[in-house]
Write a structure and sequence with these properties.
Layout (H helix, E strand, L loop, with lengths): L1 E2 L10 E6 L7 E9 L2 E3 L5 E3 L2 E10 L2 E10 L11 E7 L2
Antiparallel strand pairs: 1-2, 2-3, 4-5, 6-7, 7-8
């Protein structure tokens, strides 16, 4: 889920990972942050994406190898974005 304030993951709008047996009582992973909105491009530069959401994993032989996500270019959120797209991030 998305950490809207950053109070759980330590980063506003980062993804957090939690599990529940009953969808009522939740337990956060340690660490709780599942992934950051900060993306490192092939040229080594890093950019804080305006959003990085709707995650999907590509599984190969039972192992996650790539993260697919919807993203936008404005680090302040959707209000100032000029572009949005889907991206794929290889998992190291």
């Amino acid at each position: 889920m998305k950490d809207m304030t950053g109070g759980i993951a330590g980063e506003k709008h980062a993804a957090i990972y939690a599990t529940s047996e009953d969808a009522e009582h939740w337990e956060f992973a340690k660490p709780a942050k599942a992934y950051s909105r900060e993306v490192r491009w092939d040229d080594g530069t890093t950019v804080l994406q305006g959003s990085l959401q709707r995650p999907q994993l590509l599984m190969q032989n039972g192992v996650p190898t790539h993260l697919f996500a919807a993203t936008a270019d404005e680090p302040g959120g959707f209000h100032g974005m000029t572009k949005s797209w889907n991206m794929v991030l290889p998992l190291a």
